[in-house]
Design a protein that fits this description.
Layout lengths: L19 H21 L8 E6 L10 E6 L37 H21 L10 H28 L1 H13 L21 H22 L5 H39 L12 H17 L7 H9 L20 E8 L2 E8 L4 H24 L34 H12 L3 H10 L30 E2 L1
Antiparallel strand pairs: 1-2, 1-5, 3-4
Helix pairs in contact: 1-3, 1-4, 2-3, 2-4, 3-4, 3-6, 5-6, 5-7, 5-9, 6-9
The structure holds fe (ii) ion (2 copies).
Length: 470
Amino acid sequence: MTTVDYNSLIPNNVGLAEDRRLQRALESWQPKFVEWWKTLGPVAFQNNDVYLRTAVSVSQEGWANFGYVKMPEYRWGIFLADPQPDRKIGFGDHKGQDVWQEVPGEYRSDLRRLIVVQGDTEPASVEQQRALCLTAPSLYDLRNLFQVNVEEGRHLWAMIYLLHGYFGRDGRDEADELLLRHSGAEDNPRILGAFNEPTTDWLSFYFFTYFTDRDGKFQLASLKESAFDPLSRTCEFMLKEEAHHMFVGATGIGRVIQRTVELMKEHDTDDVSSFGGINVSVLQRYLNLHYSLSLDLFGAETSTNAANYFAAGLKGRFHEDRREDDHQLKDVTRLVPAFDQSGVVMNEAPALLALNETLRDDYIEDCAKGVERWNRTLQEVGAELRLPHVGFNRNVGVFSGKPISPDGLVVSEEKYQALRATEWLPTADDRQYIQSLMKPVLTPGKMANWISAPATGVHAKPIDYEYVRA
Ligand SMILES: [Fe+2]
Ligand SMILES: [Fe+2]
């Protein structure tokens, strides 16, 4: 078990006190981080007490410590999962060799890039969500939003530690850049497109945490396989926190659906908008949007970068160790989708080149599980939600810009543009209606009319607990 230093400025289990240089470097980065949090974190409630979970160690019982804290005083720490003794590289050209405790020179720039891209998404989502606190549907939800936000902040710390600790001067420069790029900024935006749009309403927030945080889960899970052991251990611990973010999304949408179904039954109608609920058709359009944006995050179907990262041992597959193959994929092929005159077809491609697609497949399977659960509720009124076809509304890879319907049919460009604007993606009217529902509800235990109460409160506290206090 690694020892935890919780008394120093930066709580950590990486022995920061023994590495003065690194400690000084991180302590000089910290005020810049707090400054960033205060300017680009939540637009309000910065001085309120919030009932938050703080990681104080990585052990079963210690990593989730609950109590009131003012967000700018949150103890953002650096925690790596315990090392596995004699851990060996599990895949790629170096399979079977000892994992690396330092960065090999030949992989330095690739590893740095992977860490920077992952790191960039963490503060980006905090920036995207910063205005949501003004319209929370309950104190319970407000607290969950802040929990997600402070943990994304900690995920940034996790990546900053690696950059400062293992990449020297250019790592420190990258660490500074991570606070200088801003979501949606004209001149210096965040790296990935999906992280440059503000999250404007709570329905979008729930879909974002369900679909886009789940992309995070799959990226972290494949980096957890990395031969670079500190990266692996960092990602393993981040995954625990990530699970809560997806919980917020899955249960958030579940509660919206429950309320919709209640109103549909009560008023015997599909159109619950005059009763302040959200129609299933609107939910489907929001789902279509967030799902397709998240699919793009996995990159092109075939990619030499992905093949190189795998061969080098930098980034593995989801659950690499549970797969029964040679973990090198040298002579293996798989089918990948393509687009030609006849529409969507499947072509054979080297499995090594198709790793983005393999990860996307695993992601899609995972996404479907929650939809299935939501549909159990929707069944009561004969409705359902569906994941659209993988080719719908894509901006990356073979389907980019192609006129494919949510059912996977190739349609005329004209029909595509028309239906995308009116039936398949959130319309201006949808957005306006959802925006009209966004009124803060800050009385303990009370919920906005468009969402049901959660099944239980946070950490065995009652639902009407004062999760955020003045
Ligand atoms: Fe994260
Ligand atoms: Fe997350």
